[in-house]
From TrEMBL:
Protein name: Mitotic-spindle organizing protein 1
Record family assignment: Belongs to the MOZART1 family.
Coiled-coil ranges (or none): none
Entry keyword Cytoplasm: yes
PANTHER family given in the database record: MITOTIC-SPINDLE ORGANIZING PROTEIN 1
Keyword terms: Cytoplasm, Cytoskeleton
One of the Pfam families matching this protein, by short name: MOZART1
Localization of this protein: Cytoplasm, Cytoskeleton, Microtubule organizing center
Record GO biological process: gamma-tubulin complex localization; microtubule nucleation by interphase microtubule organizing center; mitotic spindle assembly
One cellular-component annotation, GO: spindle
Length: 71
C-alpha cells in the first residue's frame, strides 16, 4: 500500500470511528477496522452486526484486560 492509500485508509477509519462513537456502538478502533475489512471482503454487514449483537449478549462487556494475551 502506498503512502496516499495508507493515509486515505487511516482517515476513513478515523471518520468511521467518530461515527461509531456518536452512535455509541461501543466498538473500539481495532474491532471496527476488522469489521470494515470483513465488509470489504464481501461479508454481509447486517449478518456481522447480528454476530456482534449476539456475542455481546452472550459474553457481556469485555475490558481491555480481557483481550490481553496471557503470558
Amino acid at each position: 500500500m502506498d503512502a496516499n492509500a495508507a493515509k486515505t485508509a487511516r482517515e476513513s477509519l478515523d471518520i468511521a470511528f467518530q461515527m461509531s462513537n456518536i452512535l455509541d456502538t461501543g466498538l473500539d478502533r481495532h474491532t471496527l477496522s476488522i469489521l470494515i475489512a470483513l465488509c470489504d471482503l464481501g461479508l454481509n454487514s447486517e449478518a456481522l452486526a447480528a454476530v456482534v449483537k449476539e456475542l455481546r449478549k452472550n459474553l457481556g462487556p469485555l475490558t481491555p484486560q480481557d483481550a490481553a494475551p496471557v503470558p
